[in-house]
Amino acid sequence: MKSSIERAQEAELVPIKEIYSRLRIRDDEVEAYGKHIGKISLSVLDRLAEQPDGKLVLVTAMSPTRYGEGKTLTSVGLGQALGQLGKRGIVALREPSLGPVFGIKGGAAGGGKSQVLPMEQINLHFTGDIHALTTAHNLLAALVDNHVLKGNACGFDVTRPMWGRALDMNDRALRNIVLGLGGHVHGVPRESGFVITAASEVMAILALAQSRADLRERLGRIVVGYTADERIITARDIGAHRAMAAVLNQALMPNLVQTMEQTPAIVHAGPFANIAHGTSSVLGTRMARKLADYVVTEAGFGADLGAEKFFNIVCRQAGFWPSVVVLVATCRAIKLHGGVPDVPAERLAEENMPAFERGLANLGRHIANLQRFGVPLVVAVNRFPTDTEAERARLEAFCQERKVAAVAHEAFAQGGRGAVALAEEVVRLADRHPSPEPHYLYSLEATIEEKVEQVARSIYGAGEVRFEKKALRQAKLFAKQGYGQLPVCIAKTQSSFSDDPNVKGAPSGWTLTVTDVQLSAGAGFLVVTCGNMMLMPGLPTEPAALHIDVDDRGQISGLF
Predict the structure, then answer these.
(1) pLDDT tens, residue by residue, 26-67
(2) pLDDT digits (tens, 9 = 90+) for 474-500
(3) Would you kindly state where each structural domain of the chain is located, as residue ranges?
(4) ∠ CA 188-192-195 to the nearest 5 degrees?
(5) Based on CB atoms within 10 Å of each CB, which residue in 79, 503, 516, 557 is the most buried?
(6) Phi, psi of 290 (to 5 degrees)
(7) CATH superfamily label, 448-530
(8) Burial class, 401, CB count within 10 angstroms (exposed 0-12 / middle 13-18 / buried 19+)
(9) Cα angle at 51 between 50 and 55, to 5 degrees?
(10) CA 560 to CA 554: how far, in whole Å?
(11) What is the pTM of this model?
């Protein structure tokens, strides 16, 4: 069987001009990055301001295995299937982070016959957006340390946490560092650390900004440190936000590429969903809705993370709401949540109906959770060759019992043709729900603790929430400083509804432990860290990087 990268390299790419011309985008509104990639000018939004918005389709998933359940594959396949039906569709996806590309999951451009292209460039350096984000983040760090060394006019308390560094790589050795060693000329010695770029507040800001002015304003609100009397110091206070905005000038423009079937795809921004809000850019989504009748976007990891944050954070800020939600499920993930170990992966391919029955509880909770938001729902079953008839029949019956359609697709093997039935159901539901009304999970007037408890109880199934002393102190401080009405972005494991990655299924009555609360004033939310959550991931025993190579012709292999 051919690998995903081999399929991608054999696919027929058309010039990017052909893609944007179909969308009625003008030549002067696109900056080409080679033959097959373009950046779209923000002026398109002004020109099409009176154009009706296309319907938004959100793709999410049940709690995943370590290998992923094909959420991006499903999004791309669905977008291609809309084309098969003669519908004008666009896929709006996140940009891949090099951390997972070189780590355990590999690339994030879909798979098989449902990929966005050129996948090698998208998975590696693409248009340089993530490099620009890393530079802007670290420019701020350099200016903070320089400000402290050159007189500290703002009064930074160097014993308190200050703005750290970022790197787009899984590198656990950089989580905690000491910098400024070697004498006064080299800076002020202090403890610090790195986050992965996808977890940087700068990434979240880029994904949520709605204009260059909004970007600059949000960058200025970033909290970079505190005085001894707990007064907040911002990037604006040290004059860093304008240069940061300049570094991000091109990165703010959405990227236009194509799928294997030449469906337009906007791939822009890439915050993680387990440690950030987990969706592609608001600008990219808004632009896609002006250019197409149906826009397929995705939220990261399981619906307890990406979808919850999409509704309660992204939709609040952007002012849109999906017309339909697609919940991706796989037989292997159901068996994982029924107690089948995922190492080696072959274990998940074996039929095990008792485990399958137990694992359906995880899918069931995701279905119930999504129904809380008042959006029509369809379960998309990503088929694997090892799925059995007994598993497929039980899954379909389970969904029917909950009055939700379960539509299987084979987008990996067949591309858009393999997802036509799914696309037909999505179009049917979306057309019946053309003007969706928001149904937020909590009020912004609630306290920080009440918001976390609402998510924990109603989405995660927790019985109670326990704030550790440091986290409670931070929550009280931010509320006192006027940030208590921000939404909460809960950072927890993607492997479980709980804050323990080893607890599978649909646990109930457990205690969610909040270990930290941090303010992302520029992004417009509070990051609530639960359990042992790391903002800088590490590499697995056998990283995907060990299988990536390039030959003498420049042909890359090993990406998947």
Answers:
(1) 999 999 999 999 999 999 999 999 999 999 999 999 999 988
(2) 999 999 999 999 999 999 999 999 999
(3) 12-127+251-431, 129-240, 448-530
(4) 140
(5) 79
(6) -80, -20
(7) Formyltetrahydrofolate synthetase, domain 3 (3.10.410.10)
(8) exposed
(9) 130
(10) 17
(11) 0.95
